[in-house]
Amino acid sequence: MSVTAARGFRASGVVAGIKSNGRPDLALVVADRTAAAAGVFTRNQVQAAPVRLSREAVSDGRLRAVVLNSGGANACTGAAGAADAVAMAAAVSAAVGCPAHDVAVASTGLIGTRLPMRRELAGIGAAAGALGPAGGTAAATAIMTTDTVCKEASVQLAGAAAGVTIGGMAKGAGMLAPALATMLAVVTTDADVASADLDRALRTAVARTFDRVDVDGCMSTNDTVLLLASARSGVIVAPGTPAWPDFVTGLGEVCSGLANQLVDDAEGASKRIAIKVVGGADEEQAVAAARGVARSALLKCAIHGADPNWGRVLAALGTTGIAFDPEAVDITFNGEPVCAGGVAAGDPEAARAALAPREVTITIDLHAGASHATVLTTDLTAEYVHENSAYST
Amino acid sequence: MSVTAARGFRASGVVAGIKSNGRPDLALVVADRTAAAAGVFTRNQVQAAPVRLSREAVSDGRLRAVVLNSGGANACTGAAGAADAVAMAAAVSAAVGCPAHDVAVASTGLIGTRLPMRRELAGIGAAAGALGPAGGTAAATAIMTTDTVCKEASVQLAGAAAGVTIGGMAKGAGMLAPALATMLAVVTTDADVASADLDRALRTAVARTFDRVDVDGCMSTNDTVLLLASARSGVIVAPGTPAWPDFVTGLGEVCSGLANQLVDDAEGASKRIAIKVVGGADEEQAVAAARGVARSALLKCAIHGADPNWGRVLAALGTTGIAFDPEAVDITFNGEPVCAGGVAAGDPEAARAALAPREVTITIDLHAGASHATVLTTDLTAEYVHENSAYST
Known about the structure:
2 copies of one chain form a homodimer. Chain A has about 400 residues and is an alpha+beta fold. The first copy, chain A, has 11 helices and 14 strands.
């Protein structure tokens, strides 16, 4: 269960023929009534037409439906592409019976080509007819591109927020970076939350989850995370109420669960690498350090080969622009010390053995304070090169 | 002819046994008399011991000798590594008969391990005995790491600077980035130039050549470019003299020649890619745009596969932080239009064919002004991953 785990939402996923391979490519998520909503979008200056439309649609804090397609990003498509996104929203509006400005649109796929609009619009009609309270997985499947598995997560809250469910779906795979990944995510909840509070909770959750995934440093033109709240649980959640911290934590868990799935399924990756910086002067420094290390192509190659080449960690740290003392830095690879006080430490063979598992945690202690942050990335592999050499063909 | 092309310099390269494969690994460049000198070093905050020593040595604008070794970077080696660099300079001082503070040291290889000092010091003695006016190529060979060919360049100036020769050597291969590559370069000239003017000329040349090579975004801890002037031609070169512009141009040609060789021989690369930004508001904007595009792993994969995926160029531009209008951008691949006014243009099959050659120029017109800049990079290949997965083993 995912985007339909919370009460008050239906979803569907259909084959609209946008992708040439005959796989599902159009998803619809619809709230039973207009829902409170919030959104976070790519910070790339080049923004796809659906991103611009959805940013505007969610600006009043309300949404009724979200339509998503894979098979084409509708980015760098000019005025015609903008009109295509508007037409998609209008078709959903007609099919669902809601104002067009309560419809968000999200697209993913190749940049620079127009969407096949006849198929899009027919697909929207078919998806509206297929909507159901168990349609979450079908929707999650229809937004996959080079993803190999569909991504879903949900939690049921306890304590003061008992009765509230939060669930979501996401797609990722390539172009996963700085702020958000090439990713579309829709999260729903049946909590009763004002849209301003939803926005605040979503920004907090995204900053510590999706924003800390950095697979290849490439930020997409289409990144979109939407959160809709139906209020159907009857549980009021607002800052200052006992339910608020539980809600924020639960939302973080769903986003974190989806973010982890994105990294696990990143294009061509053979390892999931957590760059954990501790002893940072502040959280901002810790994030900058972790992100800088996560972007080192040379380090990512070394980890791929289980090579305990810790010098590449220090060299990457030195280019991040953060203020730190290189001679104070300790580094461990899955707990094995490799560097202490800026020089070699531990047993290289033990460090090599520690790099064998699929999950690798590189812990960097800056000894500059008490803040910490973790950025998730992957190794760099020949398969990544292969997948991305032939994507548009 | 390279670092010994100019009069007044001798060089040598020997097998000191620092590398385990028995290849030459120690080079010496010595001026007949104390020379005017300038240096440019890595901007990585983590600086190898030889970088710190050489920065200090050149700070008085004078050098007599440069000793360089491959097989170990002497970086992240603490106080012991610093003492090793001092011992190398002292050994050269004794062998050549000059003050130790007139000796620069440069090292390249794996980070984090101590140099085998007994072999280093014996090698310095052997290299001093082998010094000769035709030793440039032997020196250039001894500084290679994963380089497949040695890199040399020289020019003989004409006009007002007739009689002046400028020559140099470099090593590169991996970790080529933001500012300088993992590169060591020594350039010599027989012009008579004051050290302050040498410094100015070198910074100008480096900023437009080595600094615009960006193979993998990874900046080394050891980058070093040194320039020595023997005055042996008797031609006085100073700002305001007719010879000055010829000298600056000639120095730029030698640095550019070496930088191009670095890119041509970058680890695992199958294509040399020039990212040429025109129509920039200013040179700084053009450089930032070109560098941002040069760092897109996704674009580098696409070019590897001769895939005319221009959307990745626009997506990368959008993350650079420069102010530009995405809907004004034109892009060509080796002259074939692929994007005009921010949307698709031209014939994709013609663009694919245009990407077949080893040399690819991606021209991006921002239509924001009259400035331009070019950054050189390479494609991203499975071979890069392979070479960098097993480098330290």
